[in-house]
Amino acid sequence: MLPLQSNLVARRLIASALPSLPPAPLPSRREVHLWYIVPNEIKDASLFQEYMEILSPCEKEHVLSMKGELHKKCALLSRVLVRTTLSRYTDCKISPRSFKFMKNRFGKPEIVWEHNKFGLLPSLQFNISHTSSLVACGITVDAPIGIDIEEKQRRPVTNILSLARRYFSPNEVQYLNSFVDPEIQKIEFLKLWTLKEAYVKALGKGFSGSPFKDFTIRFERSKDLLLTSEKSKIGELRIAIETVSDPESVATNWRFALVELHGSHFAAICIERDEEAPAIEQELLKLKVWKTLPFVEDECVSDTDAVTNICGLS
Amino acid sequence: MASLARTTISFSARPAQSLKVTKEFFGSKTVSFSTRKSFSAGRLRSDPSRFQINCAAKAETLEKVVKIVKEQLALPEDAAITGESKFVDLGADSLDTVEIVMGLEEAFCISVEEENAQSIVTVQDAADLIEKLCEEK
After folding, report:
1. How buried is A38 (Cβ within 10 angstroms: 0-12 exposed, 13-18 middle, 19+ buried)?
2. Which part of the chain is the Carrier domain (chain B) (predicted)?
3. DSSP type of residue A121
4. Which of B107, B119, A247 is nearest to B128 (CA)?
5. Of A198, A222, A264, A203, whose CA–CA distance to A36 is shortest?
6. Spatial contact of A155 and A273, defined as CB atoms under 8 Å apart
7. pLDDT band at residue A113 under the 50/70/90 scheme
8. Domain tally for chain A?
9. What is the C-alpha separation between A188 and B127, in angstroms, rounded?
10. Does residue A203 form part of some domain?
11. Residue A195 lies in a domain
12. Long-range contacts of A298-304 (CB under 8 A, 24+ apart)
């Protein structure tokens, strides 16, 4: 796709109604689609004006109440990303502006599917996460999903072990303690943090509904011969989760993946396992990733440097 | 002096009423306090200074909370943060929030339960919770 000058397109957008988005084929049951925007790449302020028009009055108010241009931008782009992404998966029959959202009793955002004339709509699940430099949205069909992203170069955590002792499980504290190099310890901390956040967001019960202390996330080598690399005979690295109160019970109904995104972020994804899929297919996630500037440019970056598997992906 | 003494007695006899008065002046912070400071009799000192501490302490707590929040979120010194500022509007993500809570626990020597932490929306909420936990100590 030819890269367009964003200011040229922005002027065209103002002159006419917003162009329709290219529809996207639905993800299969164990597939996750991830869309992201890089706020710093938007140079034309007039594009933001157009984007504001897609939001609901409530969302506009929320954006304007944020302190500072950067936070306003990220709040705006979060809503734009959710609305435009969902629209793509309805074959663009539902416009970005038309979606309505509500929060479940724990505060997790959900789509309100109104009685419509378009027939059967896919059971889309979504989750958003953003930092000041990236906004991401994960989509599945049917499977509850949680995602969390963090900047690799995030400002340092004041005292990682203190925080871990307070909020993480004992096994995780032990794991973090095993790293002597503070830089590596920080990286491992961020990996655990994003994975734990993604799980809690997938569960949808809020921070106090699934306290971080009650479960352990750990990295392990798969002993499954089918997942063993031919060359190295080492099993695939994968992510397991177990409850602290009953370590023998490994929670097998959730799948995790951890990737490095855009060279700058860790992105953790957690989805509920598809019970009906064949056993081998249940092990690893399939992920497709697009970088987007809605209404301007979409780029599939799945097989590029922009997405690096750390673990969990097939 | 006699009338002053009478004022003193009635003053300490009805502390609740005086508290109400003090709260109304909270916005301007110093008006009533500086007046009271001029009373020098010993018996007078305990009551007004207690009220002085209560309200000055509240302002001091808020100031300390704002300082910790600015540090954690790497905001400039002159960033306009007030009691009404919502954490989410300041760009605090979940990790920031956890670190801020830990910073507050350390600074004020308190322990914040998860459920209480969840109910904090504004900076003033945090300051109020701290005040409550400090009083309970």
Report:
1. middle
2. 59-134
3. -
4. B119
5. A264
6. no
7. confident
8. 1
9. 33
10. yes
11. yes
12. A298/A1, A298/A22, A299/A1
How far apart are alpha carbons A172 and A166 in whole angstroms? 11
Q: Which residue of A has its CA nearest to B100?
A: A158
- Using CA atoms, how far apart are residues A131 and A134, in angstroms rounded to an integer? 5
- Taking the C-alpha atoms of residue B83 and residue B73, their distance in angstroms, rounded to an integer, is 16
CB atoms within 10 A of CB B75: 17
Beta bridge partners of A241: A217
The CA–CA distances, whole Å, from A102 to A58, A107, A108, A121, A284 equal: 12, 9, 8, 18, 31
**Burial label, B53 (beta-carbon count in 10 A; 0-12, 13-18, 19+):** exposed
Q: Are A267 and A254 in contact (CB under 8 A)?
A: no
> Which residues of chain A does B85 touch, with a Cβ-Cβ cutoff of 8 Å?
67
Residues of B with CB under 8 A from a CB of A: 72, 74, 79-80, 85-86, 89-91, 93-95, 98-99, 102-103, 114-115, 118
Residue whose pair of structure tokens reads 């409850």 in the numeric block: A243
Residue A2: inside a domain: no
CB contacts of A152 in chain B (<8 Å) are none
User: Is A176:A218 a contact under the CB 8 Å cutoff?
Assistant: no
Query: What's the CA gap between A137 and A135, in Å, rounded?
Result: 7
Q: What is the pTM of this model?
A: 0.80
Q: Which domain holds residue A124?
A: 8-311
Residue B115's H or E segment, with its range, is helix B114-118
The domain that holds A39 is classified in CATH as: 3.90.470.20
Interface ipTM > 0.90: no
What does the longest C-alpha to C-alpha distance in chain B come to?
60
Model confidence at B52, in pLDDT bands (50, 70, 90)? low
Look at residue B19 and give its three-state secondary structure. Answer: helix
Residues forming beta bridges with residue A258, ordered by sequence position? A268, A311
A65 and B89: CB-CB below 8 Å? yes
Give residue B74's pLDDT band: very low, low, confident or very high (50, 70, 90): confident
pLDDT tens track for A7-43: 455 444 444 456 778 999 999 888 999 999 999 999 8
Single-letter residue type at B60: E
CB A271 within 8 A of CB A254: yes
Residue A153 covered by a domain: yes
Chain B positions in Cβ-Cβ contact with residue A68 (cut-off 8 Å):
91
Tens digit of each residue's pLDDT (9 = 90 or more) over A187-229: 999 999 999 999 999 998 877 778 898 999 999 877 665 555 5
Q: Are A83 and A100 a contacting pair, CB within 8 Å?
A: no
